[in-house]
């Protein structure tokens, strides 16, 4: 196979360096974007490194200083001597376009990185001594590292910059949180806050998925932003039927079994219309294939095509990863850490459902606590908000509180803890605020 010339933009590299030699303030405009590694020509990277070092020492980056620095480091000859620096300077008229030129150089650098990652993937593919799953994981990670701009997004900021951003948000009245539509819960938690990892935990069949459907539907309806539901538990068909049941009020079991009554068709059609308007995106990749890298790449694509995300939901955390692995708590902890990072990176609330240990059944008071979360690992530290669900009628058929779900706010980094009660109809997954009845 012939080796094509790697993507480069030598002219832009030269103009950037010329601009830096010409204008003492120019480097400050590209320093966050451009690293020395981004230059294809080694001599260019060395000259840029010299300028960076001078800039960090608060020294000018003009010809004489750069030449002196290179000479002191015995690098002047290597980069082509003083003649090279003069040539760069003479070819440049101004540094006015330096930011744009930097983005062109970075673009080519990332393409070269992609090609290098491609070669690594080929090597990984040939390495039959490594388990296929690990090969896939490593491959995804390589691409993930390339496509995330975490360094750019999370670079250190001086407090003045933080204050400016904070003030802009306050004066725009920008919403840091999305109401859940359940008044009492919103009073306690102040809505679902962007960048928070929210864990909704309960025993099987308590209503976690229904609550996730409610939040999905409410945020998609009120915020008009994409809500992405990763359903490792149910197929997209089952989940769609759940959402359709919420909208139509038609019993979910009958929808699941495709046995609706003739007089329900009209209602069904209306529900199809309203639900079809919402930007709810279901990803039912099976649990074994659903890695944080995969979640990120799906979210990145959706954000690119549809704009800022409103909510991410995952059903459910213990279903992911190698379930036969020895240390499940560690494995689950790895996921919760990754979900917190995703919430931050995408500036979105991330709701992850979680199972509760069976042990809670043997307690006198069957209301779960944080310690009851299965394979809890680091979940407790990673989460910003912990919601534990409890229904008395789940345990007592003659419960004095039928149709009521308790939402126990057991951890809340941004507000109070406590319990609120909401109305819940499990046949159609509808939730209501009891105080507003
Ligand atoms: N059509 C229906 N009529 C009555 N109850 C229903 C109906 N559909 C679902 N349910 C009830 O809703 C509850 C299931 O809710 P959901 O699936 O949200 O629970 P979950 O906590 O996510 O459970 P799991 O972890 O098992 O998935 C169960 O108690 C089930 O009996």
From TrEMBL:
Membrane-spanning residues: none
CDD domains: DnaB_C (cd00984)
Biological processes annotated in GO: DNA replication, synthesis of primer
This enzyme's EC code(s): 5.6.2.3
Keywords: ATP-binding, DNA replication, DNA-binding, Helicase, Hydrolase, Isomerase, Nucleotide-binding, Primosome
One example GO MF annotation: ATP hydrolysis activity
Keyword rRNA processing found: no
GO CC annotation terms, alphabetical: cytosol; primosome complex
Pfam families linked: DnaB (PF00772), DnaB_C (PF03796)
Top-level lineage group: Bacteria
SF4 helicase domain segment(s): 171-437
Stated role: The main replicative DNA helicase, it participates in initiation and elongation during chromosome replication. Travels ahead of the DNA replisome, separating dsDNA into templates for DNA synthesis. A processive ATP-dependent 5'-3' DNA helicase it has DNA-dependent ATPase activity.
UniProt xrefs under PANTHER family: REPLICATIVE DNA HELICASE (PTHR30153:SF2), REPLICATIVE DNA HELICASE DNAB (PTHR30153)
Name of the molecule in the record: Replicative DNA helicase
Organism: Chamaesiphon polymorphus CCALA 037
Gene (UniProt): dnaB
């Amino acid at each position: 196979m012939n080796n094509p010339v790697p993507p480069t933009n030598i002219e832009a590299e030269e103009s950037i360096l010329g601009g830096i030699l010409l204008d003492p303030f120019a480097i400050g405009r590209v320093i966050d974007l451009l690293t020395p590694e981004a230059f294809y020509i080694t001599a260019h990277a060395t000259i840029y490194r010299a300028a960076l070092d001078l800039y960090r020492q608060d020294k000018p980056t003009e010809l004489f200083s750069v030449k002196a620095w290179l000479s002191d480091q015995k690098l002047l000859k290597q980069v082509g001597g003083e003649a090279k620096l003069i040539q760069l300077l003479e070819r440049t008229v101004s540094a006015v376009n330096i930011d744009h030129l930097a983005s062109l150089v970075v673009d080519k650098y990332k393409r070269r990185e992609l090609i290098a990652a491609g070669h690594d993937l080929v090597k990984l593919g040939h390495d039959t001594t490594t388990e296929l799953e690990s090969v896939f994981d490593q491959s995804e990670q390589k691409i993930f590292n390339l496509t995330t701009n975490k360094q750019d997004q999370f670079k250190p900021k001086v407090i003045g910059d933080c204050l400016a951003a904070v003030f802009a948000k306050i004066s725009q009245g920008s919403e840091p949180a999305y109401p859940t539509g359940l008044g009492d819960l919103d009073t306690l938690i102040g809505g679902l806050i962007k960048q928070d990892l929210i864990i909704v935990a309960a025993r099987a069949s308590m209503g976690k998925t229904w609550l996730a459907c409610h939040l999905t539907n409410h945020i998609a309806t009120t915020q008009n932003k994409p809500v992405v539901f990763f359903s490792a538990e149910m197929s997209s068909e089952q989940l769609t039927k759940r959402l359709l049941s919420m909208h139509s009020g038609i019993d979910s079991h009958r929808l699941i079994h495709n046995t609706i009554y003739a007089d329900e068709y009209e209602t069904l059609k209306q529900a199809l219309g309203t639900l079809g308007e919402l930007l709810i995106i279901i990803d039912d990749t099976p649990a074994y294939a659903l890695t944080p890298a995969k979640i990120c790449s799906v979210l990145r694509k959706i954000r690119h095509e549809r704009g800022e995300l409103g909510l991410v939901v995952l059903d459910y955390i213990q279903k992911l990863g190698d379930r036969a692995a020895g240390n499940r708590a560690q494995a689950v902890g790895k996921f919760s850490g990754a979900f917190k990072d995703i919430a931050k990176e995408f500036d979105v609330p991330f709701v992850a459902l979680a199972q509760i240990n069976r042990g809670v059944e043997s307690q006198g008071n069957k209301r779960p606590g944080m310690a009851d979360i299965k394979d809890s690992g680091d979940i407790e530290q990673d989460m910003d908000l912990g919601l534990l669900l409890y229904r008395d009628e789940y345990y007592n058929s003659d419960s004095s509180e039928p149709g009521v779900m308790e939402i126990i706010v057991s951890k809340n980094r941004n507000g109070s803890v406590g319990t609120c009660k909401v109305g819940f109809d499990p046949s159609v997954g509808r939730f209501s605020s009891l105080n507003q009845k």
